[in-house]
């Protein structure tokens, strides 16, 4: 059985005549702006329902909006120590293709059916022995190797999150690509391409696959069935992620490889929705790919714009959520406007939420953020201080207060606020990134301890090293700046700007050979970088050539 079907001629004619969007010319005008295909939901979701999300980064984008509307979203509780992970914790569990969906849900189901306790036997197939009693998780993005005990502990946390699907009200599935890598020794699929040095030392162990329609369909159905066996009433919403392939290993033009990938997955989602009851397809893929590019995409044409994602979520909410209270809806709209960069509308929506429910703390947090972005710093400061009077340990509010203080030319006060904020638990990487420019502009003596604390909190996030290195250089502490940059350049994918800064400092210290080596790597990453080209010309000067 497939999604194809037959109708008698009168029924086919009736469907055509009663469908206002049966002809392409009926919708051609929409292609100049936003495209929103018609939806016919077969079920509804209500505030308080548990929604389990599985898929690529596109799935991650809708989670905070669902929570804002009162849904329980277990994936938002996924967390790992920052010193163990590159990137965001939830991204560590991204799943890109149907075999990965099936594999992780079957893994969780086996433990669920047994006793809910993860053992080393559950972990061993995905653990790459790195030597020294250290193991790399081949099914997890960005995680550093860990001891056996920590590996089990981390996997227990993952299981606890994934096991919520067996009692959830709804599961949202967002497959994104069909290029996959398999471990021939275990038969398991990897998170992505082999990357760890221990894996690269065994090249014959890994197999690259371009997945077929048949494989993807079988695995999507199996993933749903493994959940439905334990949770028969769960509703399922499937959508094809519009985010394109970043790179292809197929040898084909990436445009062709990506079109094949999306075509397979789009067809699979349609068939799944026909073959299983209470499974709907939501057309986010169509909305993104058919809308005007300047509306839907970021400038890189690789990621959907935050604002358009928010509109897709709003469309989903309008179609599937019922019983949402007005304050929650206004709060979600405020979040959407913030993501879209429309701060004045975010303020309006946040105030509307507060007019209905004055005690809505999170709406006031959004209001404070909108006021900071609107550069109405005294109002933002007053709002932040009022929030901190209610909850003095909300570090995210303290970051907004610091930005408001900095916007009023009080950098020392801002640094004192940031220092206090960074001593609190639950400091987020996004909050630290939001004050990067503020830290870089502050007086070096006041800002260096704050910048150093940022590195201590997020040692695996390369973005936090730049402000500290710049401050140390400005303070004349160039040897310390070089030490900081050396740590940054050991991390994954350091920015070209940090390599260039390192090369400049090494050249100033007279270590021209090292400077040229770092510069060569910077130019290999970005041959047109202006700073790198300027330093290349400087290092090519006869006096420096003689000195080396």
Highest CATH level, the class of the domain at 9-324: Alpha Beta
Number of helices: 26
- What is the average per-residue confidence, as pLDDT, rounded to a whole number? 90
Strand order of the largest sheet: 1-4-7-8
- Determine the structural class based on helices, strands and strand pairing: alpha/beta
Low-confidence stretches: 543-547
Determine the fraction of residues in helical runs and give it as a percent range.
40-55%
Largest sheet: 4 strands, parallel
Strand content: 5-15%
Tally of DSSP β-strands: 8
Termini separation comes to 73 Å
Helix and strand arrangement:
Elements: H1 9-17, E1 51-55, H2 57-68, H3 98-114, H4 120-123, E2 127-131, E3 134-137, H5 148-162, E4 170-174, E5 179-183, H6 197-200, E6 206-210, H7 213-228, E7 235-238, H8 254-275, E8 279-281, H9 284-290, H10 293-296, H11 306-320, H12 326-339, H13 343-356, H14 361-373, H15 377-390, H16 395-407, H17 411-421, H18 429-434, H19 436-441, H20 444-457, H21 465-474, H22 478-489, H23 496-508, H24 512-525, H25 530-539, H26 542-547
Parallel strand pairs: 1-4, 4-7, 7-8
Antiparallel strand pairs: 2-3, 5-6
Helix pairs in contact: 2-11, 3-7, 7-8, 11-12, 12-13, 12-14, 13-14, 14-15, 14-16, 15-16, 16-17, 17-20, 20-21, 21-22, 22-23, 23-24, 23-25, 24-25
Short structural description:
With 548 residues, this protein is of the alpha/beta class. It is 54% helix and 7% strand.
Architecture overview:
By secondary structure, the chain is of the alpha/beta class. Among the domains are: 9-324, Rossmann fold (3-Layer(aba) Sandwich); 337-374, no CATH class. Helix content is 54%, strand content 7%. The protein is built from 26 helices and eight strands. The strands form three sheets. Strands 1-4-7-8 form a four-stranded parallel β-sheet, sandwiched between helices. The termini are far apart. Mean pLDDT is 90; it is low at 543-547.
């Amino acid at each position: 059985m497939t999604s194809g079907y037959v109708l008698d001629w009168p029924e086919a004619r009736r469907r055509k005549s009663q469908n206002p969007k049966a002809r392409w010319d009926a919708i051609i005008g929409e292609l100049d702006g936003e495209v929103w295909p018609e939806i016919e939901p077969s079920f509804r979701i209500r505030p308080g329902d548990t929604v389990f999300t599985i898929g690529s980064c596109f799935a991650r984008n809708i989670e905070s909006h669902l929570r804002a509307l009162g849904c329980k979203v277990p994936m938002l509780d996924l967390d790992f120590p920052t010193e163990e992970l590159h990137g965001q914790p939830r991204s560590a569990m991204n799943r890109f293709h149907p075999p990965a969906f099936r594999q992780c849900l079957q893994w969780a189901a086996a433990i669920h059916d047994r006793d809910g306790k993860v053992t080393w036997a559950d972990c061993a197939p995905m653990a790459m022995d790195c030597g020294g009693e250290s193991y790399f998780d081949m099914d997890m993005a960005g995680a550093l190797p860990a001891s056996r005990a920590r590996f089990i502990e981390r996997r227990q946390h993952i299981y606890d999150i994934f096991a919520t699907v067996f009692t959830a009200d709804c599961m949202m599935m967002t497959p994104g690509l069909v290029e996959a890598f398999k471990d021939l020794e275990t038969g398991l699929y990897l998170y992505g391409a082999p990357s760890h040095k221990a894996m690269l030392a065994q090249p014959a162990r890994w197999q690259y696959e371009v997945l077929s329609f048949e494989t993807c369909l079988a695995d999507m159905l199996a993933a749903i069935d493994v959940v439905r066996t334990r949770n028969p009433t769960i509703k399922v919403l499937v959508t094809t992620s519009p985010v394109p392939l970043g790179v292809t290993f197929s040898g084909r033009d990436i445009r062709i490889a990506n079109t094949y990938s999306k075509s397979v997955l789009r067809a699979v989602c349609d068939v799944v929705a026909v073959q299983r009851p209470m499974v709907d397809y939501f057309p986010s893929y169509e909305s993104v790919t058919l809308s005007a590019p300047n509306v839907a995409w970021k400038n890189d044409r690789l990621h959907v714009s935050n604002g358009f994602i928010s509109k897709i979520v709003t469309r989903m909410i309008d179609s599937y959520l019922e019983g949402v209270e007005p304050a929650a809806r206004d709060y979600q709209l405020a979040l959407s406007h913030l993501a879209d960069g429309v701060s004045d509308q975010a303020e309006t929506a946040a105030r509307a939420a507060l007019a209905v429910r004055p005690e809505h703390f999170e709406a006031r947090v959004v209001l404070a953020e909108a006021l900071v972005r609107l550069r109405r710093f005294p109002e933002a400061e007053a709002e932040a201080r009022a929030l901190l009077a209610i909850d003095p340990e909300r570090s995210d509010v303290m970051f907004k207060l610091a930005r408001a203080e900095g916007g009023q030319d009080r950098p020392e006060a801002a640094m004192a606020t940031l220092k206090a904020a960074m001593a609190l638990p639950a400091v987020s990487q996004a909050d630290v990134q939001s004050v990067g420019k503020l830290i870089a502009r502050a007086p070096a003596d006041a800002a260096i301890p704050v910048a150093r604390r940022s590195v201590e909190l997020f040692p695996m996030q390369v973005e936090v090293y730049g402000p500290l290195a710049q401050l140390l250089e400005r303070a004349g502490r160039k040897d310390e700046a070089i030490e900081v940059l050396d740590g940054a350049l050991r991390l994954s994918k350091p920015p070209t700007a940090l390599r260039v800064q390192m090369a400049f400092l090494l050249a100033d210290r007279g270590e021209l050979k090292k400077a040229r080596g770092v510069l060569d790597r910077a130019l290999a990453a970005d041959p047109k970088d202006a700073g790198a080209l300027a330093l290349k010309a400087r290092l090519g000067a006869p006096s420096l050539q003689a000195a080396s």
